Amino acid sequence: MSDTDKAKELLRAAARQIGSPVWQRIRPRIETIAARYALQAEREAIAHSDRTTQAIREEINALRREVNDLRHIADELRPRTDTATHEVRAMGTQVAAVDERLAILERTAEISTTTDADNGEARALVDEIRDEHAKVRARLTAMASYEERIGRLETDRDRT
């Protein structure tokens, strides 16, 4: 060992002897302060966690209420969609019958040789049938748009 190594070792030993009583008195104070800061940090973390948990619970409750509202709306709409579907099917049959009647009237109007009074009555009847046909087409168009809208609502409901 060299002289410098010996000197360093002696200085270290002296520092241990002199510093040991000081360290023994300071160490409990430092540990108390460190424990106090650790406890404060833990409390802040718990408080933050509690606030976050509460916010998440409120959001979940809001989403549950919204889902329940949407289920209620879907339950209300289901009978309407069933009725609309039934009416559209019934109107399809009605439109086919009106088309058939119109075709028959158009053929008989072209073929028959009748008087002007009969022609006027036939034209009035054909016009009436055409008006009825237009009304049925309008209803079918409205029903188709309602059915499309209901389909979109059901799709939106199924996504959520």
Describe this structure in words.
This protein is mostly helical. It has a single domain, classed as Helix Hairpins, CATH 1.10.287. Helix content is 96%, strand content 0%. The chain contains two helices and no strands. α1 runs antiparallel to α2. It is rod-shaped and about 145 Å long.
What is the approximate shape?
rod-shaped
Question: Into which percentage range does the β-strand content fall?
Answer: under 5%
Average pLDDT score: 84
Secondary structure: helix percent? over 70%
* Named CATH topology: Helix Hairpins
Query: Structural class, please?
Result: mainly alpha
Q: Evaluate the radius of gyration.
A: 45 Å
Euclidean distance between termini CA atoms: 80 Å
Q: Any guess at the CATH architecture?
A: Orthogonal Bundle
Q: Report the CATH C-level class.
A: Mainly Alpha
- Please write the string of helix (H) and strand (E) elements: HH
Number of beta strands: 0
How many individual domains?
1
Largest sheet: none
